[in-house]
Amino acid sequence: MVTPSPPPSDKLGSGWMIIAAVGFTLMNFWVKAAAQTFGFGAGELVFWRMGFAALFLGITAKMQGKTFATPHWRAHLNRSISGTLGMFCIFYAVMHLPLATGVTLGYTSSIFLAVLSFVVLKERVSAYTLAVLLLGFGGVVLLLNPSFQSGQELAALVGLCGGLLAGWAYLQVRELSLLGEPGWRVVFYLSLVGMALSAVWTGFTGWHPLTAAALPYLLGIGASALVAQLCLTRAYKVGNKFTVASLSYLTVVFSSLAGVWFLGDKISWQEALGMGIIVASGILSSMKPSWRRRRKSP
User: Fold this and answer.
1) Rounded Cα–Cα distance for residues 152 and 98 (Å)
2) What confidence tens digit (pLDDT) does each residue in 136-180 have?
3) How many angstroms separate the CA atoms of 233 and 144, rounded?
């Protein structure tokens, strides 16, 4: 009897995260460019970003015979609402702040995830994690200071709120994973609910006409976000989790370069130092289990 050979290993491995970082950078770049060039609001941009993913995932799941039914619709709804609101806030920050600043504020989600795990799930925080959290919040203070001094307080606070909401959404994703929900269904319902919420919001704020000139920007947002999400999922599946988590912060680096080279953004030393500290805290938090669930007494 011939033993079947094992399937070939994925040569890219953790490198899929580099492609994902490029995709997320392009998404954020096109979000800012679409807002500046055509005046699109955050609600409209979230709608087009979510709509592309919902259509693609819906058609793909249907063709593969997957089921959309789930007994955990409340958990999906909670995750989708918080995730959509977080995206609203992060898009708003990206539109009104230097590209790198807005993107980095979204990456504070890892800091807030640890805090929420302690506050909500009563998970024990180690001294190591506490030190990393304090380091991260120090970076946030440094990053926000120039924004407050330049009169961009609202955009900075909205971006920070986006990081908080994203952290809460990731907490819900973890719970859905423990319930056995597949990743595609989590992303599909996020996209579907996101489309509905952003359509309602934009119904009040007003839609901009869909022109031939604006269409490439909107398709670019949706396509780059979808490719980035798929590559990120692949990276965590076949790569080293610590390496992937570290490489995810390349989005901040790429966004900094794109903002300076193509948008004329100027980054002060305080902002650069703050971004560096936030990135370092995110990487350090992934190097060691940051919390342990508190055991309940019998």
Assistant:
1) 10
2) 989 998 888 888 878 889 999 999 999 999 999 988 888 888 888
3) 31
Residue numbers in the chain where pLDDT is lower than 70: 1-10, 286, 288-298
Rounded Cα distance, 188 and 285, in Å: 29
Q: Report whether 46 contacts 87 (CB < 8 A).
A: yes
pTM: 0.87
Residues 6+ apart with CB under 8 A from 239: 13, 14, 15, 16, 17
User: Is the separation of the CB atoms in 169 and 103 below 8 Å?
Assistant: no
What gap in Å lies between CA 95 and CA 176, rounded to an integer?
A: 31
Token representation of residue 263: 């948008």
Output DSSP code: residue 108: T
Report the candidate in 248, 231, 257, 258 with the shortest Cα–Cα distance to residue 282. Answer: 248
Cα-atom radius of gyration of the chain, to the nearest Å? Answer: 20
- Which residues make Cβ contacts (< 8 Å) with residue 225, sequence separation at least 6? 23, 24, 27, 49, 52, 53
